TrEMBL record, chain A:
Entries under PANTHER family matching the protein: QUEUINE TRNA-RIBOSYLTRANSFERASE ACCESSORY SUBUNIT 2 (PTHR46064:SF1)
Similarity comment: family membership: Belongs to the queuine tRNA-ribosyltransferase family. QTRT2 subfamily.
Domain tRNA-guanine(15) transglycosylase-like: 29-394
Keyword annotations of the record: Cytoplasm, Metal-binding, tRNA processing, Zinc
Domain of life the protein comes from: Eukaryota
Protein name: Queuine tRNA-ribosyltransferase accessory subunit 2
Gene Ontology molecular-function annotations: metal ion binding; tRNA-guanosine(34) queuine transglycosylase activity
Subunit annotation: Heterodimer of a catalytic subunit and an accessory subunit.
GO CC, one annotated term: cytoplasm
Cofactor: how bound: Binds 1 zinc ion per subunit.
Function: Non-catalytic subunit of the queuine tRNA-ribosyltransferase (TGT) that catalyzes the base-exchange of a guanine (G) residue with queuine (Q) at position 34 (anticodon wobble position) in tRNAs with GU(N) anticodons (tRNA-Asp, -Asn, -His and -Tyr), resulting in the hypermodified nucleoside queuosine (7-(((4,5-cis-dihydroxy-2-cyclopenten-1-yl)amino)methyl)-7-deazaguanosine).
TrEMBL record, chain B:
Lineage: Eukaryota, Fungi, Dikarya, Ascomycota, Pezizomycotina
Protein name: Queuine tRNA-ribosyltransferase catalytic subunit 1
Origin species: Glarea lozoyensis (strain ATCC 20868 / MF5171)
Subcellular location: Cytoplasm
Cofactor: Zn(2+)
SUPFAM superfamilies, per database record: tRNA-guanine transglycosylase (SSF51713)
């Protein structure tokens, strides 16, 4: 075995994790690792999992993932699969075979599945959790998910990795009494899950998004049972430094379920020793029509500007309409090599679904390249300096969204009640009836229609068209009052 | 009148049509059509990528269905991204990264079907811009000019489209004759006859004599291919079949025949028997987005609860990427499509892949049957599968139409 490599032999659950390079004296430092799961491709860490919705990466069919994705795993939320649990057995539980979740979602076999109870980001539930169950939000409404049921789901579905049920309050700040309960409940639930001994699933113990003192008993318990769990899942990366610095806990892979808003937040977490991420801003950038465009630590091509560079490009902007450039000059993804900005701008503007699919391919490729560069940097021992460079060169937040996203489904968000405005405006007005038939740009200027080459004014002469146009416009301006 | 002043001129062509086989019973034919962006095999179904994208599929995925010729709509591309952009980018192939053939319509049909206040005059179609209400005019010259910019391999003439069921005989005749005159203007305006193939469009409603007259006029103009238009607009299927049958008998054998807007599987197989070669329709891709899968046993709505725990493929034995097992196949189950239908667009993409594959595979099998001269048997098996062998369910129009070409489904 190579020096500097720490392997931990045969861990249960068909999963192994070895840290390849880290400073053993410091628990909180950027580290390199390799996560091996039998039957799946090895995952070099730090790395990320794509966030799925109903078991698919939004916009991408499994064959596209197979052909073009470099990420290694998909985060799936149990709440996306069990809307029928209230009336019977959810269909996914009847899938034949060894890995029902894989089979059901038609996921190519070398990808890793990570099952968590809730979506990331999750919709906050109107009712709280109880001593035995949490509230979840399925496509047909809120449901209660008892830990017992969750344990059964994991045992049957055999995801490669699963996060234990955690008493996390979404959308509310827990009071002192509640905080006291959170650690106890989560500990009990984890104990129950481990007692069921899921054979083919590696269990990640959730670390609660509360002060470490408030969950110290739970954390100490984790240290005691560290040989029976296979990883730690952090809802808040700030709790990482407070984890008992024991060998048993340090050797476990660390998954971040926090919702980093930008690459620099990811870097910060990596510096704390985080290994695997789920990153909601990939999907949200795609839906906003933003092509991510950053590399670690600085741009591949020299930039003249000294001002921080934007992390992405808003592809809705009409300036791209004739640009044959790739989304990002250094990118080698399918969207960048087979297509160009003009097409993606056209697809967004025409609301063609392929626009979001191509952006999704590209944005995932950007993050894969980002993590690959980070691993190289850690291996070279320059991660700290490189992170400083990154912070200087790039803007700290994602660019503003200007365009419209694809259609939003009910289970993606919770409506705020009646009278809530539409997410997207209607694509076409009713010409000749309403006043506002014309499509307008952001400044309210009416966009030029370009269907036929506009005739020279001369050719309208004698046909009364100019007069009719005037009348038409007058009519419009009058009725608009 | 157009016919009197017309002197036939031979038109350049950018295609080669090789007739490979004729069915010994029906009027069905198998042919190879070589277009500027490669060969296609007839009979052929062409999926519709309205706005330069086939509803969520990458060009790569469309290629994987075997598609080598798809449609773009001139009207939509004229609005978005617009002629100026298309000109700068260098045409629709470059815009969408599609290496194979494209056919564009003239834009005339959308004028009439989508737009209020469209008004047809001798000069062209007058309409109000859907953007700002500005009066605009689409002339045969504009349409061809736009299609020249798009650079599609097959371009269509602007025609005066009228619903076939219109009772106004005089207006129908006017539309037919105007379509002939507009064809002359399209031919004159066509800037790239050696790289783009202009097809004429036979009009004349359901009046067989008028259709025959139109065929004579159009055929004399010697366009590289010929379309039969104005159909698929709610007319009785029996009327539709009579029109197609009449026209194909009057058309030259060595040119491709394209019936516009046809896509139901039973319409395709009957139309092939009546002598048509090419078809297009948005139905397979549109119905996919409603959760419907086309199979040889009929259409299945995957949103139905009965599919929630059905772990079979969308169609047993189907060779599409979605249904296929093993290398390169996804082995997607009906249960998973049900799980996604109307909730994640990936569900629609999967069914779009399946449906396009189904249509193309159907035509591949049709072609094989013609080449092996067993098309009548193919037709019988097709209707048997579709109606579970229950002959009382066979549609009368199909039975009657096939009788006229020597196939008795009931025997």
């Amino acid at each position: 075995m190579a020096p500097n490599t720490e392997s931990h032999g045969q861990q249960p659950g068909n999963m192994s994790f070895e840290t390849l390079k880290s400073n053993i004296q410091h628990t909180t430092t950027a580290r390199l690792g390799k996560l091996g799961i039998s039957g799946r491709k090895d995952i070099e860490t730090p790395n990320f999992f794509s966030i799925g919705s109903r078991g698919v990466v939004p916009h991408l069919t499994p064959d596209v993932i197979s052909a073009h994705a470099q990420f290694s795993g998909i985060h799936m939320a149990l709440e996306d699969f069990i809307e029928r649990a209230t009336t019977g057995t959810p269909p996914v539980m009847n899938v034949p075979g060894d890995s029902p979740l894989h089979t059901f979602t038609a996921l190519p076999s070398h990808f890793t599945t990570l099952l968590a109870p809730r979506r990331t980001p999750a919709v906050s539930a109107p009712t709280g959790n109880s001593n035995t169950a949490i509230s979840i939000f399925t496509s047909t409404g809120f449901q209660v998910l008892p830990n017992k049921a969750y344990t059964t789901y994991i045992t049957k579905l055999s995801p490669d990795l699963a996060v234990g049920l955690a008493d996390v309050p979404y959308g509310t700040v827990p009071g002192t009494k509640r905080i006291a309960k959170m650690g106890d409940r989560t500990e009990t639930w984890l104990t129950e899950l481990l007692a069921a001994k899921p054979e083919r699933t590696a269990i990640f113990a959730p670390i609660l998004p509360i002060d470490s003192n408030a969950q110290s008993e739970y954390l100490n318990h984790l240290d005691d049972i560290a040989d029976r769990i296979h990883g730690l899942a952090f809802y808040d990366p700030n709790t990482l430094p407070d984890i008992p610095a024991t060998t048993a806990l340090t050797r476990l892979p660390r998954l971040s379920l926090s919702e980093p808003r930008s690459p620099s937040q990811i870097l910060r977490q990596i510096a704390l020793g985080m290994d695997i991420f789920t990153i909601p801003f990939i999907n949200s950038a795609t839906d906003a029509g933003i092509a991510l465009d950053f590399s670690f630590p600085s741009p591949k091509t020299k930039s003249e500007s000294t001002a921080p560079l934007p992390l992405g490009t808003d592809m809705w902007a009409a300036t791209h309409s004739t640009s044959l450039l790739p989304l990002s000059e250094s990118c080698t993804c399918y969207a960048c090599t087979a297509h160009h900005r003009a097409y993606i701008q056209h697809l967004l503007s025409a609301k063609e679904m392929l626009g979001w699919a191509l952006l999704q391919i590209h944005n995932h490729a950007m993050l894969s390249a980002f993590f690959s560069a980070i691993r190289t940097s850690i291996a070279a021992g320059t991660f700290e300096e490189d992170s400083d460079v990154f912070a200087r060169v790039w803007e700290s937040e994602m660019p503003e969204k200007t365009g419209q996203g694809p259609r939003v489904r009910g289970y993606h968000y919770k409506s705020e009640g009646p009278g809530e405005g539409k997410k997207n405006k209607a694509a076409w007005g009713n010409l000749g009836v309403g006043v506002d038939g014309g499509e307008k740009d952001a400044d309210g200027k009416v966009l030029e229609g370009g269907l036929v080459p506009t005739e020279g004014r001369g050719s309208w002469r004698g046909r009364g068209l100019r007069r009719r146009l005037r009348v038409y416009r007058e009519m419009h301006s009058r009725t608009s009052f | 009148m157009a016919s009197e002043s017309f002197t036939p001129v031979s038109m350049p062509s950018a295609l080669r049509f090789d007739l490979l086989a004729r069915c010994s019973t029906t009027k069905a034919r198998a042919a190879n059509l070589t277009l500027p962006h490669g060969p296609v095999q007839l009979p052929l179904f062409m999926p519709v990528a309205t706005q330069a994208s086939l509803k969520g599929l990458t060009p790569e995925q469309l290629e994987a269905t075997g598609c080598r010729l798809c449609l773009n709509n001139t009207y939509h591309l004229g609005l978005k991204p617009g002629q100026e952009v298309l000109d700068k980018i260098g045409g629709a192939h470059k815009l969408q990264g599609w290496k194979h053939n494209i056919l564009t319509d003239s834009g005339g049909f959308q004028m009439v079907s989508l737009l209020k206040l469209a008004q047809i005059t001798e000069q062209g179609v007058r309409f109000l811009s859907p953007h700002d209400g500005t009066p605009m005019l689409l002339t045969p010259e504009h349409s061809i000019n736009l299609q020249n910019t798009i650079g599609s391999d097959i371009i269509m003439q602007l025609d005066d489209v009228l619903v076939t069921t219109s009772p106004d005989h005089a207006r129908m005749r006017e539309a037919m004759l105007r379509s002939v005159r507009w064809l002359d203007r399209c031919i004159a305006a066509h800037a790239n006859p050696t790289t783009q193939n202009l097809f004429c469009i036979i009009q004349g409603g359901l009046d067989l004599e008028m259709r025959a007259e139109c065929c004579r006029e159009m055929v004399a103009r010697d366009t590289p291919g010929i379309a039969i238009g104005g159909l698929s607009g709610g007319e009785a299927k029996a009327d539709y079949c009579r029109v197609v049958n009449t026209c194909t008998s009057l058309l030259p054998e060595m040119k491709p025949r394209y019936v516009m807007g046809i896509g139901y599987p039973e319409d395709l197989v009957v139309s092939v028997a009546l002598g048509a070669d090419m078809f297009d329709c948005v139905w397979p891709t549109r119905t996919a987005r409603f959760g419907n899968a086309i199979t040889k046993y009929g259409m299945l709505n995957m949103r139905h609860a009965k599919y929630a725990s059905d772990f079979g493929p969308v169609e047993e034995g189907c060779g599409c990427v979605c249904c296929r097992k093993g290398e390169g196949g996804l082995n997607v189950t009906r249960a998973f499509v049900h799980h996604l239908a109307a909730k994640e667009t990936v569900g629609a993409h999967l069914l779009t892949m399946h449906n396009v594959w189904y249509q193309l595979e159907l035509m591949r099998n049709v072609r094989k049957a013609i080449l092996e001269d067993r098309y009548p048997e193919f037709l019988k098996q097709f209707f048997k599968d579709l109606h579970a062998g229950d002959k009382s369910m066979y549609p009368d129009w199909a039975v009657e139409a096939l009788k006229t070409v020597g196939v008795d489904l009931m025997e």
